[in-house]
Amino acid sequence: MKKIEAIIKPFKMDDVREALAEVGINGMTVSEVKGFGRQKGHTELYRGAEYQVDFLPKMKIEIVLSDDVVERAIEAITASANTGKIGDGKVFVYNVEQAVRIRTGEQNDEAL
Questions:
Q1: Helix (H) or strand (E) holding 7
Q2: pTM (two decimals)
Q3: Cβ(28)–Cβ(63) under 8 Å?
Q4: Helix boundaries (H) for the chain
Q5: E runs forming strands in 9-96
Q6: Least crowded by CB within 10 Å, which of 20, 23, 51, 75?
Q7: How many CB atoms lie within 10 A of CB 108?
């Protein structure tokens, strides 16, 4: 099993969710997060004063999948989240040792 964490631009969330649904992935955890990478934030104007916004709004998607679906999920995320501009985000993949469904006690792939 693998865990995918993807950090994307907020306005691409619906596109990514739909792309994942098309490859058969319907369950995920989504969080609103803030951060920056090479993008380094930007400046904004508020009541005539310019100020630096260091942390930009992003969406973090977390999915735990069977090994055989991981590549399709990564392709779906990268294709649907891509705008071609800086700040499109990142995808991270981790190994998952064990998963347990609390309600039934099912483990690993059966728990997903």
A1: strand 2-8
A2: 0.84
A3: yes
A4: 13-22, 70-81
A5: 29-35, 42-46, 49-53, 56-65, 89-95
A6: 51
A7: 14
